[in-house]
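Supplementary Text 2. Reproducibility record for the structural model of the 425-residue chain.

All settings were left at their defaults, and a single model was retained for analysis rather than an ensemble. We include the record here because the model underlies the residue-level annotations in Supplementary Table 4.
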Amino acid sequence: MDGNKFLVIGIGDDGPSGLPASTLEIIRRAEFLAGGERHLSFFPDHPAEKMMVKSNLKELAIRLEAGMSRNEQMVVLASGDPMFFGVGGYLAKIFPPDRMDVRPAPSAMQLAFAAAHIPWDEAALVSVHAKPLERLLAPARSADVIGVFTEDGTTPGKIAAFLTSHGLGDFDAIICERLGNERQSVRRFPLAELNGHVFDPLNTVILIRRKPIDATAARQSTEAHSDAYRLDIGLPEESFVHRKPKLGLITKSEIRILSLAKLQLFDAAVVWDIGAGSGSVSIEAARIASHGTIYAIEKNVEDIENVRENIARFGTSHVRPVHGTAPDVLSEIADNPDAVFIGGSAGRMRDILDIAARRLRPGGRIVLNLATVENLAETIATLKTLTLAYELIQVQISRGAPILEMTRFEALNPVTIVTAWENKP
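Retained model, structure tokens:
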């Protein structure tokens, strides 16, 4: 094995017996061996330095970098296919292709569909391992077959309760336990029977819709229940819990729509909402970035409680409230952002923009809502200092309001929306 690279090896529940001799020889020669507790237990007498991998992926990457500088023989053990919702995907984002090799085993998902005798070429695949159950909503509304990587033995029951609570209980669940092991089990249940049921911690779930979706019927249902299915952003201010009568503390619906468009969010985006107030932008960002993580950063105690209540109201558990003043609390957030929304700065705009610009991921956007010319002037000067590209739009919204038996237009305060991004030549 080349000491200038490390090897990521997929291993099944059958352990070393399922690995070819050449792979076992590589593991035998390893000077550093990393993996989950179960993976390392397959090699209890191995003399290598060992590192148990849990949530310490950053530390693992640092150790691998140090080991390559010393030409150490290093192996990372992972479940099944390391590049399929596994540690390999994380490491591939950090190390170039010539620094790592990957030897996959069949993934638990492959084994599950094979054991259940169900083709999976058109199945929706999702992981709720250390991820919010909201990830299930989109596929549960559109797919007939869903493969789910789970967290532990209680996850199937949680999945059942979650889908049922959202009116999506028309599934059977096939629970596949100990795949590839002599104790392998494949059982089918209606969702209603899963509540409170605990399974083996090593389980994979396949959801099968009882009545497959008919495209024509789905379209007719969409037309008949448009409120449930149509694109729904720019929720009214009254939808959110917020401090009253100070409606200025919540981003107006029309401004929110434009700001969300400028953020250019995607399904797995990491978002910082700085000066979150009631969390209206965070909530709407979470409905777009359903597989992402949104950090709602707010210094006011009353507002942060409103954020929590809105998270519960809209079922967006992947919004994380962060109580504190920016930029001081930004160092507590490990995830670098794909998008940063700044709705309030508490007089520290320069410092906030500096940190946001340094930590923004490639292709990311910073969007600000500004109501005063002083803040606008400071923002433009700071963006120039940071050599960020930017655009400005000023939005003047007027809403229809009744006057006697007629309608007049009532103006809202104008808002300048600033969008900034990395200035590439």
